[in-house]
Amino acid sequence: MADPGKITASGQAWQRFRSNPVSLVSLAVIILISLVAVAGYQVCPDKSPNANSQHLELAAKKPGFSVRMIKVRKNVPVQHRGFFGTMLFGQEPYYNTIPVLSYAFRGDSVVVQNYTEIPGQEDSRQAFWLPEVVYPVNEDYTTGVSGDTFSFTNLEGERITVPRGALRKRIGEENIVTKRFLLGTDRFGRDMLSRMILGARVSLSVGLVAVFISLVIGLLFGALAGYYRGWVDDFIMWLINVIWSVPTLLLVIALTMVMGKGFWQIFIAVGITMWVEVARVVRGQVMGIREKEFVMAARSLGYSDMRIIFRHILPNIFAPVIIIAAANFASAILIEAGLSFLGIGVQPPIPSWGTMVRDHYGFIIVDKAYLAFIPGFAIMLLVLAFTLSGNGLRDAMDVRS
Hints:
By secondary structure, this protein is α+β, with helices and mostly antiparallel strands. The protein folds into 2 domains: 9-34 and 193-396, MetI-like fold, CATH 1.10.3720.10; 65-181, no CATH class. 55% of the residues lie in helices and 12% in strands.
């Protein structure tokens, strides 16, 4: 029976990690950003796919900007998604939102004064028939007004009769809303906060998939080179040195040119270029363990080489692999941001922090530099958090400490 007072090696490592406040705060930042990224559209003010609701009249508004909007029901069927569907893919809006300065009810319509800051266009007005603001109206079968009551057919073919007063009250309470942009809007009038949240999802996804690919390839090649040595080691080290001699960003650019631009291509390209560092670390660790007594005992029992490698050797080099994975996570985020900045990474309208910096770096010389600084700061914060967490893991897992 294990001694309850005895602390395991993992427990000691966790205690050492917790005693490092910088690493602990960095881990908390990573967890917080990850939770927000997983929640995705559920915590986004703009739940449209890719947070791509554009209002050009609201372009480049400062953080905290608010505006009144009227919500006008779309006259096309909109597919409803459940909780998890919305969280993953967003929800196509049921309404078109139009920024307005004011509104007034006149007869059977609501008349709005469109939002504008262009001199001479302050009197731009637009009128909407009351039912079409609230309901998806089938325009081929509308029947107008009978007294103070509207009677019309919706897209599902249902006959709806509703008093004019009830429609006006509902529009005033539900369809005239004030929207606040906590981080302002980008140059296309899209909500910056929503796109920052979805950009975090892209960065973390690229890091996660790229690190997974690099671990799979690096563990396999590194283990084979360290265990078999000889010509196997010579060939794998030759391959590592060839790939290592090519600049990472240049190699990723070449791979994206071959596989095409896109979301999944970036995952694969970044992962394929990062395995060499993992392989070098694993090779050195395996070389030091392969002569241990428990490995020699496994050989004498007739275990296969693959069983010895994957069941006995690799579990004993888990600590350095975790540390290198944390460092590669930070590198993957930087590479993705750099590729998106160059225009060969994640393609619009998918939000990416690197793309957001590219779209707004010209605003740095004017009074709206925050449009580039906000995503740039997010990249710096996440990369720094992974770097400091990796340093904390290295110190915590150091058996000499």
